[in-house]
């Protein structure tokens, strides 16, 4: 359930709901095996947006359904306030392989209330043949891996090198080759990837400078927060204020 913004907030709310796999990025729908329904009335998969369903906003209830009964395809569909919107994605089971689909919510500037079956009364009617995740037998569920048991057992890698020497590419490659460690890459480029501007502003040089400044501020905050989290990190950042001759 999508809840209202705080009164007077200048932020434009962002909300997507859907499914992704264990190794997906937080930006729902923007990489492989990541499927989202966006509040602007769009569906997004692997960074590709298409019109779907209806736009939604304050106090709307969005249903998110995964049908595994087909012999070859997993069908992902959505509803708005009890009205079915049809199938948004058809995922080949062969391509999905052993990857489990996990509920995924992406939001900014809004509050969201979720129901996996823990509430006495659902927000809306449940279509025939579907059950809440809470009702799926435990032996049929997939447990995502646990984080390191303590901060002392976490791993932190610090990239060192000149700008443009390939540190970011190495960090991304190392993260992909060691997925079981679930590295969080902290760097301006990683933050910029999550900052989005409207299509009308993408060519604005001033907007690019502003985003870079905001990314640096976000990164500074993330570095402060990181020691509290039981995760593995790669710090991929160098100072450009005084580059070497």
UniProtKB/TrEMBL annotation:
Biological-process GO terms, alphabetical: alternative mRNA splicing, via spliceosome
Recorded superkingdom: Eukaryota
One Gene Ontology molecular-function label: RNA binding
Main localisation: nucleus
InterPro entries according to UniProt: B30.2/SPRY, B30.2/SPRY_sf, ConA-like_dom_sf, P-loop_NTPase, SPRY_dom, SPRY_hnRNP_U
Domain B30.2/SPRY: 1-121
GO cellular component, as recorded: nucleus
Pfam family name, one: SPRY
Keyword Nucleus belongs to the record: yes
PROSITE patterns from the UniProt entry: B302_SPRY
Localization annotation: Nucleus
UniProt keyword terms in alphabetical order: Nucleus
Keyword check for Nucleus: yes
CDD domains: SPRY_hnRNP
Gene3D superfamilies per the UniProt record, alphabetical: 2.60.120.920, P-loop containing nucleotide triphosphate hydrolases
PANTHER family: HETEROGENEOUS NUCLEAR RIBONUCLEOPROTEIN U FAMILY MEMBER, HETEROGENEOUS NUCLEAR RIBONUCLEOPROTEIN U-LIKE PROTEIN 2
Protein name: HNRL2 protein
